[in-house]
Amino acid sequence: MWISKLIGALCLFFTLTAWAAVDINTASSDDLTSIKGIGPSTSAKILDQRKKAKFKSWEDFIQRVSGIGEARANKLSQQGLTVNGDKFQATSTKPQKQTAANKPAQVAPASTAKHGR
């Protein structure tokens, strides 16, 4: 009975460590490429920038590594990537897409046709 509990606990431990966060400032190339969405090219860009200076924040990471925007940063964070232990949180105040509900009313242009009488 206790053997099955031990095996269960070990399985849980290995499952949890498989989903452990990968911090961008300490990760190896292999650690980075283990994140879905980071291939060898992006990993190389990250390591090149990290040689210059550690990443201070997600914003710093987005600015310094080409091909990384807020949407991709969010996806990488969901896959387990962190910057200084922090998950990505969007800070953008991009304008919303205009929909019929929030689109400003448009005034029809005045007619330039001459009225004949």
What is the strand and helix layout of this fold?
Blueprint: H1 2-18, E1 22-23, H2 29-33, H3 40-52, H4 58-64, H5 70-78, E2 81-82
Parallel strand pairs: 1-2
Descriptive tags:
117 residues, mainly alpha, 5 helices
Task: Describe what you observe in this structure.
With 117 residues, the chain is mainly α. Helices cover 44% and strands 3% of the residues. It is extended, with a radius of gyration of 25 Å.
Spatial shape: extended
Largest sheet: 2 strands, parallel
Q: How many β-strands, per DSSP?
A: 2
Could you tell me how far the N terminus lies from the C terminus, measured between alpha carbons in angstroms?
102 Å
Can I get a quick summary?
It contains 5 helices and 2 strands. It has helices at 2-18, 29-33, 40-52, 58-64, 70-78, and strands spanning 22-23, 81-82.
